[in-house]
Structures
1.
Amino acid sequence: MARVVVDVMLKPEILDPQGQAVQRALPRLGFDGIADVRQGKRFELEVDGPVDEAALARIHEMAETFLANTVIEDFVVRVDEESTAGKAGAK
């Protein structure tokens, strides 16, 4: 089984109140030097079978129609190479 990761983030022009709240809290907690914080979502999908172009296209469609609100969010689909490399070496 391979893992595909879908990262979803608010578009840069969309205000991020949760990220702003975290950014304001960081200096009070002793974490200085952070200029901006953006909050997002991460989905990890365990895929049965090979992660070929057809599987990635289907996951892209899933992200576009269900996982992300494309009016206000961008997303990136990627194969988690660590999960596939680790399992390829295991017997």
2.
Amino acid sequence: MSNATTTAPATTASTAGTTAETGARTPEAAGVITDARQRIDDLDGRIIGLVQERMAVSAVIQRERLTSGGRRVNLSREMEILAHYRDQLGKPGTALAMTLLELSRGQI
């Protein structure tokens, strides 16, 4: 009898911890959410890597532009980028593009 009492609370506590962490109401939903969150974490890692790569490519462009006597920032190109992100993602896309441009400009 004491074994059943000891085992049941441990299982319930484990399930409660998993569902509490995910906000799910069933262990099955908690499993799906946990797996999806892992995929998001992996995607975020790839996105961060791509942003860092974009920053490096932008630095090359800026260096060449400055070396040739040009300006660091090309405003017409930035407007194209803003329009592209807005067209693809709507208004939040504009904010995302602004952030990317800010990260990629370096020190002005």
3.
Amino acid sequence: MTTLERREEWSTRWGPYALLGVATLVSAFVADAVMTSAEKQVAAALVLMTLVWQLCWERVRPGASEHGVAGLVYFAVRWAFAFALTWLNPFFALYAVQGYFDSRQLLSPRMAHVGLVATAVTMAGSQSGGLPPQGPLNWFAFVALFVVNVGLVLLFVRLETQRDENARARALTIDELQQANARLRQAHEENAGLHAQLLVQAREAGVSDERRRLAAEIHDTIAQSLAGIVTQLQAAADSEDPAVARGHVERAAALARHGLGEARRSVQDLGPSALEHDALPVALHKTVEEWSATAGVRAEFTVTGDVEALHEEIEATLLRIAQEALANAGRHAGANRVGVTLSYMDDEVSVDVRDDGRGFDPHRVDARERAGGFGLGGMRARAERVAGTFEIESEPGCGTAVSARVPLVRHA
């Protein structure tokens, strides 16, 4: 219970006793001037009856319902005692003023106004010289004071009502703020959980992406180098000329050294070694020449448009796609001629690899590719990783053309 509530409880419980005691003392002090002997005896009896009534109410009050019949009866009888005492001695109005304080607590809203007006009658009678008014002047004073008392009471009631409404509004606002704070705390906890979940997902995605990157790099470098080494060693084994066989062995050794270097660069997440010292057109030209010499297939390289320095990731993507397309042509196409074109356009750059080999049906993709192989699917994934596109055109017996088109992102 707050301090204000304790004070209200004290005034409700002990206020009537205090006012009755003060009113009795003051009235007794002036009794000889305003009361006869018989009136004194009646007043003494009324004071005793009022005190008993107050004690009876004290026993009933804890169980009485708010604005119930018990409160109405108590208020009406107490008002009657106060009115009678004020009629006998105007100073008993000190006790009658209690009606202003607890009428709204004891009575319903409609009856509270009646109780306030009735209390105003008693107070106006006391202030105008006593009840009943004697003469026209006293009546005029009584009416005027009654109007003033009623006006002040209604004003105070309105102010108190407004104060109660403001208090309820503040309480409602505080309750809404508490609910909003609770929702904010809940949202904060949910956001913290989502943040932790996103961190886990980002970590898992990073691990998965790194695995895919290494798998693609191994396929594009080590696997292709090993395939070339096997081809050269097989050719050396099948050759009867020692000089020719030695040449195949030397090319196999060169492929092994190159594959080892590419493997190290892949682990370190570096770009292809072919781009370390050369721009993309030069690196592609050398790649095409080396592949042609190794595969024994005629290959041509063409550059169209204005050559520009591209971002490292763009150049690496196009080079890797071209290398994979050439490797596929050497392994599967059985081609006699291959053409590679690097095209620089206004906002895009593309690499196209065409061969005159046996071709295939693009819609009947090998099960290994659908299961996550690194041939056609790997080339498409590389292009899409840099917001590019990858297309295949092929028919059985009509050769194959692959095209990777990516945004032209210039070197910073």
4.
Amino acid sequence: MEEVSNEMQARVEVRNPWLAILPLMLGAFVGMFSETALNIALPQLMKALAVGQSSIQWLVTGYMLVIGIVLPLSSLLTKWFTTKQLVISGLAFFIIGSLISGFGVSFSMVLVGRMIQGVGTGIILPLMFTVAMLVFPPNKLGSVNGILALVIAFFSVENVNQITKPKIDFLSIILSIIGFSGLIAGTSFASHAGWLSIQVLGCLIVGILALVFYVRRQLKLNVPILNMKVFKHYNFTLGAGLVMIDFGIILSAMYLLPQYLQNGLLVAVALTGIIMLPGGLVNALVSAVAGRMYDNFGAKWPTRIGFLIAFVGAFLLSIVTTSSPIWYVILAHIILMIGTPLAMSPAQTSALNSLKGIESADGSAILNTVQQIVGALATALATSFLTLGRNSVGGAEAFRFTNGVHYGMYFMIALTVVGFIIALFVKDDGDYSK
């Protein structure tokens, strides 16, 4: 333990760093797992809650929207509340939201529970990285439920942040809520109201205007909620763009594929999880390897190769039918899950390595925030394309749904192409002198 501690040179000494980080690791794991695990159950939830495709996707987009709104406030919260207060509050929010959703008998009740869960995840996720950097390097820990994590938090978490209680810029908070909500609401409503409807255009215009004012305000504030000045760094801007696109591909696939398996191939829910498992395992394995590849090869080639491989996976999924063999779907998913993490880790590392000092924390906060917002937008757009393709043909429901999945996969293919083009402009550190 001493060797690890000496390597990191912990800035804050605590009695037991492992116990201090354990509730945060478990809480973050449960929160991120909940972000995509629900996708497998969406077709069944549509039937149980008697809602359509455009409504059920709010269980996913609403959750990520709330996370995206809360994440930028993490730096402010750590200056107003102690570490233990934040950890316990975050886990409590998640557990309360889980109970509300679990016992929910209506769509609105389940949605409220999901959004409360999002508050908890939005508090815990950035706090995990902050505490880990201060007290100990994070390591892989076994999975356990949120309630156990809450119990541990009462006894093990120590306070590592300093309470300064700076002035809260409520206008920035309001603008971010209106901006992000407007964008995601407009995109979500498009699946049933149409892109040219007043409802959709109104939400999008309000959201865009609010975000414009939000960004301008952050650039003028002495202590902004999100430091937008980090985008002056070339590699951070490109890396952030690649991370956003890559995350959009991943979330779209995680949303579309389980529904295709159940509604297109008529696969049972339990078997859906098994079919998705190999791709998930490959994703985790490649992520670990890709993180090390940056040290040897930089970000240029891993990101380019990653998006090319992702293109192949998305293309294979775009030509599935109602009679495609299971092995084909698994293979296409594995290929996609090789490409996306291969591009993700180097892009993220390149973006953060281009920043120094306090800007590194600012960049991390921005990346965490945009991932959630882009994930919500990508899910909403995938739903819109799914609905468009589903309504463009006649025939059996399985055939119509599969055609809708094709449209969603075309959207993913477009993202891989855009990602590859942007990756062509990525420069490694040594390239600036050439």
